[in-house]
Amino acid sequence: MTRDAIDLLGHLAFRRVAVLGWSDGGIEALLLGMRHPAKVRKIVAMAATLNPTDEAVYPAIITSTKSMMDAIPASVRQTRQGKRELKVTQMLFDEPHITPAALQVITAPTLVIIGDHDLVREEHALAIYRHVPNSQLCILPDATHMVPYDDPALFNLVVERFLRSPYTKRDRIKDFFKSYEAMKSSNGEAKPDR
After folding, report:
1. Residue 102: DSSP 8-state
2. Beta partners for 114?
3. What pTM does this model have?
4. DSSP of 37-92, one letter per residue?
5. Which of 66, 84, 153, 179 sits 20 to 30 Å CA-CA off 164?
6. CA gap 107, 43 in Å, rounded
7. Phi/psi class of residue 47: alpha, beta or left (left: φ > 0; alpha: ψ in -120 to 50)?
8. In a domain, 123, yes or no
9. Looking at residue 14, what is its pLDDT?
């Protein structure tokens, strides 16, 4: 799929693009950033995983998906749509195989997103965020793996803000004190909570 995307970008004569991917598409977005950094300006990876294990997703989704696949009637399995669904769903069990360290080659600013009730483990999204050098992390509240469908207004707000804003590499300490000093000078002395 990554090769297909690069071929399409070449055919359309796009030089550099922002890439948004959800679930398997999030994996593809990361792979594009890894394999074709000159083509990728920014990445948004919603609910991406690095491996097909319960380290990446909650075990219940693996069990539920296997049960769902087993329940598909043979007559449906033989249809074009049925074969496609089985092939796409099987990817959950077979792919990808990306080491966290391999993400360090991504140069594009990257937004890693999951829902707070996602199928992807929070720890896994955090590992992706920590290994992509120029990344930001967003855990959307009251959101599942389906947040782009369930709450497109929230999802689009976060994505559009990231894509439209210039990327700034934050320094945890320096940026805190810079904002703190600005707050003090604009509002008078900051008052501690009591």
Report:
1. G
2. 139
3. 0.88
4. GGGEEEEEEES--SSSSTTTB-HHHHHHHHHHHHTS-HHHHTSHHHHHHHHHHHHH
5. 179
6. 10
7. left
8. yes
9. 84
Sheet containing 135-144: which strands, arranged edge to edge?
17-22, 40-46, 110-117, 135-144
Domain that holds residue 167: 2-51+96-187
What's the domain count of the chain?
Answer: 1
Per-residue pLDDT reduced to its tens digit, 43-94: 999 999 999 999 999 999 999 999 999 999 999 999 999 999 899 888 889 9
Is beta strand 17-22 parallel, antiparallel or unpaired with respect to 40-46?
Answer: parallel
Task: Classify residue 109: in a domain, yes or no.
Answer: yes
Is the model's pLDDT at 162 over the cut of 90? yes
Predicted confidence (pLDDT) at residue 193 exceeds the cutoff of 70: no
C-beta separation of 46 from 69 below 8 A: no
The pair of three-digit structure tokens given for residue 107, joined into one six-digit string: 């140069």
